[in-house]
Amino acid sequence: MEKGYLSLVLHAHLPYIRHPEHEHFLEENWFFEAITETYIPLLKVFEKLAEDGVKYRLTMSLTPPLLSMFADPLLQNRYLRHVEKLIELSEKEIERTRWLPEFNRMAYFYNDLFSYARWYFSEKCHKNILTSFRRLQDDGYLEIITCGATHGYLPLMIQKEAVRAQVHYAVEYHTRSFGRPPRGIWLPECGYNPGDDEILRDYGIRYFFTDAHGLLHASPRPKYGNFAPVYCPSGVAAFGRDLESSKQVWSANEGYPGDYDYREFYRDIGFDLEYEYIKPYIHPSGLRTNTGIKYYRITGRTHDKQPYDPYWAQEKAATHAGNFMFNREKQIEYLSTILDRKPIIVSPYDAELFGHWWFEGPQWIDYLLRKIYYDQKTIKLITPSDYLALYPRNQISTPSLSSWGYKGYNEVWLEDRNDWIYRHLHHATKLMVELANTYPEASGVLKRALNQAAREVLLAQSSDWAFVMKTGTVVPYALKRTKSHIGRFLGLHEQITNQRINEGWLQDLEYKDNIFPDLDFRIYSSSESTKRRVENLAMAL
Amino acid sequence: MTQKDLVKMTKEELLSLARENQIKNRSKMTKAELIASLRAITIQATKPIIVTETDKPPEPIYTTGIIEEENLCEERVEEEEYTLPLSYNQTKIILLVRDPYWLYTYWDLCNEVKEKLKTEYGDWERAPLGLKVCGEKESGGGQPEFFNISVSPHTNNWYINVKPNQRYSVHLGYFSPSGEFITLARSNTVVTPRDCMSEVIDEEWMIIEEDFRRLYRLAGGAPAAGSVEIVESLLKRLEREMGSAAISSISSPAGLPPRERRFWLVLNTELIIYGATEPDASLIFNDQPITLRPDGSFTIRMALPDGVKTMPVTSRSHDGQDEITITPVVSKETH
């Protein structure tokens, strides 16, 4: 009989990046790379485990922007174009490396990887990989939860209507995508602000997560620390992130992904190979970019990188999975001497870590889930919903404001380089709420303009832009996205209030910022009643 | 934004725009330099190409020279450019929590108020603007605390050092000649988060103090220590640990290799064999078939390691009647 539980949570998210106005757009590659390196490899692992009779329960959040990109025909076709180019490049690489056996083997490896990705994407999933996630959900392996509609950072929103709109649309869209309403939510950036749970409750959400200190600093003091959930006064459960298990995977120095046998992310043939040869596979402007073909292992803290050996890497992934499991067993055994109930260890990670950054990550998950199933009896995998069903009675306590960003609070998204955005975001939200209250019965062009205005507000709110401004990579793009969504919103607002809607411009915006085609701007209405919310959900089903 | 638009702006407006665009050393720049920097940024942002995540972060371009319009044309794509208003012409102040110790506030003044201050103080820049911060215990009770901060009319936001687990609001106003604080707007109320475990204990869910400390330690990973040290260690750990969101976007888990001396040379050798034959012939290179282009030409490209390589290339005619083999031998040494 198990002594405690492990809840692995993978948070899959990418900002909505789609530029039909450009034939090639560099940032769209983030999505393409994630499909090839993370989503398909993970799905492959999950499906193979199920096929082999390994029982497991995993929680995954798939954010609405990601789901929208999965479903978008333009991006689907661009992905195919992208992966076909990679197949072509890997074929050339097979030829080019024929006298370098260590590289040649990898060239074949990449050729297989890309060919499989193409087959999986176009043949198996008919271009929308959401179908695979949904199947795993329906078969009882994955519990899929939602996130904010555009991953807006909730603790820095001052209007309740803004938080509500993020949650409302996310729940509606998720329900339509997966055929059932989400039981849980991954709050964007794990950002919790006391009181937001009341809004979650209104939309039928049963649980969310906070970072470790969010739960440890809850009041009244939580009896089980972050090894069991508490109920907020609203009745929504809060689960706390475990730092020890997090650190083993995340930590730059001590974490598994830094092992010298693993693949080096920073040596890509897009930068390494002769310019004329690689030119057709990098950005059409001639700017060198990552291709995804990388031949070296981390080797050490040196520039002199050695060729990658997939067999060694695989062995390491197995060893690390064993180590992770062993540590969780010890953790659970120790906890069970303190607690009078079976503890839950919650280990959330960004899904894109697995495969994209940590190339062997999906293999590690594969080994981990197999080992947990076959090799021990101390821990069992569980989802938060299952745990709540086992222990429906929990302490009532309010977690503290927190996030999983650097330093644990709001600083990542509120500092010298990005604090100026909030006056604009708040202003736009305020105007949007006024619009929704003024024109509840809008129809025709007016309604379209209002819906587009709501899209622009949502897109501007993505926490990704503030994050990018802080970290200093691709800053101009983040600035441009923030300014153009706010600018477009202000333009629409002016046209709506002056009753002079420029239909041509509106159409152009609908074409460019086409996220959530069925969005109803009334999610911003202050009088939005519980009754309507429930009706919407019923309709979405 | 064009050169013309920028020239029309006041230096104050330009500075604010420069701040939005994160131009470094902006406060030391002349108006002309500001315009040039902003111009450079605008052009950068208009380019459809943006560097990838592994590239160096784009630095703002510092230049005082004139930018040649012509050079930029070919890279420019017609796109709408948006400049956000510096003020929404309303008098208000908003307060946000950054962490247990810091609040962020921003404000805006409507033209009417600005005019009024101008008439009272002659010059807008001389208006003695200030913030009055009010704090009280989260649970209520106790003496509320007040303190004032003087702010320059050039700024429109401020970070305020505060205490954890307290309720705050802030007034925007100015000091009258008699020293009295005159409120123009009052902010929303916020509560700073606790930076330690709660003192409130729920009798129904009691746990022995020592056990809770053990749990807290486990969660925070601190060595056996008193509660203050535990909290400190937890915070340090949080600080040390990259938020996972951070790591996934800026560096690989392994981190970048250490910086070595900058000077370096990389040299690789590749060999290209190319030629042509009858378009319907079959071509064999090192026992492997090679695809011909429609015109019968072909190119084989390989990385060339040290050593001697013998490379027979054979073309066989469509009907199998003719066969030609040419065998180049290449020897490569690296010294």
Structure characterization notes:
The complex is a heterodimer of chains A (541) and B (335). By secondary structure, chain A is α/β, with parallel strands linked by helices. Chain A has 2 domains: 4-146 and 182-407, Alpha-Beta Barrel (7-stranded beta/alpha barrel); 414-540, Families 57/38 glycoside transferase, middle domain (immunoglobulin/albumin-binding domain-like). Chain A is built from 20 helices and 9 strands. Chain B is of the alpha+beta class. Chain B is 24% helix and 27% strand. Chain B contains 8 helices and 16 strands. In chain B, the strands form 5 sheets. In chain B, strands 3, 4, 6, 7 and 8 form a 5-stranded antiparallel sheet that branches. A 4-stranded antiparallel sheet of chain B has the order 11-10-14-15, with no helix packed on it. In chain B, strand 6 and strand 7 (181-186) form a beta hairpin. Chain B is elongated and about 110 Å long. The relative contact order of chain B is 0.07. Classes of the chains: A alpha/beta (541), B alpha+beta (335). Chains A and B meet through helix 3, helix 8, helix 9, helix 12 and strand 8 of A and helix 3, strand 1, strand 2, helix 6 and helix 7 of B.
Helix count from the secondary structure assignment of chain A: 20
CATH topology name of the largest domain in chain B: Immunoglobulin-like
Based on DSSP secondary structure assignment, what is the total number of beta strands of chain B? 16
> Structural class, from helix and strand content of chain A?
alpha/beta
Write down the secondary-structure element order of chain A.
EHEHHHHEHEHEHEEHHHHEHEHHHHHHH
Helix content of chain A: 40-55%
C-alpha termini separation of chain A: 38 Å
The profile of the biggest β sheet of chain A is: 5 strands, parallel
Just name the CATH architecture of the largest domain in chain B.
Answer: Sandwich
Total count of strands of chain A: 9
Global outline of chain A: globular
Please, how many domains of chain B? Answer: 4
CATH superfamily of the largest domain in chain B: Immunoglobulins
Structural class call of chain B reads alpha+beta
SSE arrangement of chain B, N to C: HHHHEEHEEEEEEHHHEEEEEEEE
> In DSSP terms, counting alpha (H) and pi (I) runs of 4 or more, how many helices of chain B?
8
Low-confidence stretches of chain B: 43-77, 221-257
Report the average pLDDT across residues of chain A.
94
First-to-last CA distance of chain B: 56 Å
